[in-house]
């Protein structure tokens, strides 16, 4: 069993009070009946409030994104469901810089903070280890991997090799009406960027890219590109900063989102020259999302 890490996860996950993560409930979430067990409650009620919450200054990055079904006021939980929610919460925390590079995190302490046992946390961390985000520290927990510009540049290069030719081909074959259907996704990235919410932006960004590549009809391509995209989003934040926002600046997210709308405009206009310039520029820097 892992020993306690030197930093309590409550400090690293950016919460200013001592409530468990899952006590941050979405509006309208069903509450358990009075006297019901508190231990099982968090995983069912910590849905992320996304860009709307960020606009009010609320911290939403590490909250669980999907509420679980309930029976008689109590959550119906399967281990896989808990593990999946913990995994998504940890991924969001990585993007937001709330899990700091070089720090070791204990599964039992994170589990206590999430309101779950250490087992689903450990399982989620093992998955993150397979994805290269953390590494196992025997008898202690998991250390967040320190990223560098070279690694991020390599990921950006691979993503460009995959995505740029596909987008250029789609620009010649997909009708304008199909591209217009992606407008809401592009606008979602703009809203998330404007709110300065890196976790919400990261998810919206990947959703837009998945939708674009999905028009190629190649599911394996979409999965591979999305995995690389997620890994590229786990950037090395400035220590003590706020993840992607600290590294790139809030304005950088807004500029990145603006590239989505500009690219979509060019695709709708069937302007292959502009599409080529925009899509290449979108992958032109190591930090490009």
3D architecture notes:
Residues 80-147 form the HTH gntR-type domain. This is GntR family transcriptional regulator. Residues 1-72 are annotated as: Disordered. With 289 residues, the chain is mainly alpha-helical. The protein folds into 2 domains: 9-144, Winged helix-like DNA-binding domain superfamily/Winged helix DNA-binding domain (Arc Repressor Mutant, subunit A), CATH 1.10.10; 149-282, Four Helix Bundle (Hemerythrin (Met), subunit A) (Up-down Bundle). The chain contains 14 helices and 5 strands. The strands form 2 sheets. It has a 3-stranded antiparallel β-sheet with strand order 3-5-4. Strands 1-2 form a two-stranded antiparallel ribbon. Strand 1 and strand 2 (74-75) form a beta hairpin. Helix 4 (79-96) packs across helix 6 (118-130), helix 9 runs antiparallel to helix 13 (250-268) and helix 10 (198-214) runs antiparallel to helix 11 (219-233). The protein is elongated and about 55 Å long. The relative contact order is 0.12. Mean pLDDT is 73; it is low at 1-79, 236-249 and 285-289.
Features:
single chain; 289 residues; mainly alpha; Arc Repressor Mutant, subunit A; Four Helix Bundle (Hemerythrin (Met), subunit A); 2 domains; three-stranded antiparallel sheet; two-stranded antiparallel ribbon; 5 strands; 5% strand; disordered C terminus
Number of domains: 2
| Sheet/helix structural class | mainly alpha
Count helical runs: 14
- The overall average pLDDT, rounded, is 73
CATH superfamily of the largest domain: Winged helix-like DNA-binding domain superfamily/Winged helix DNA-binding domain
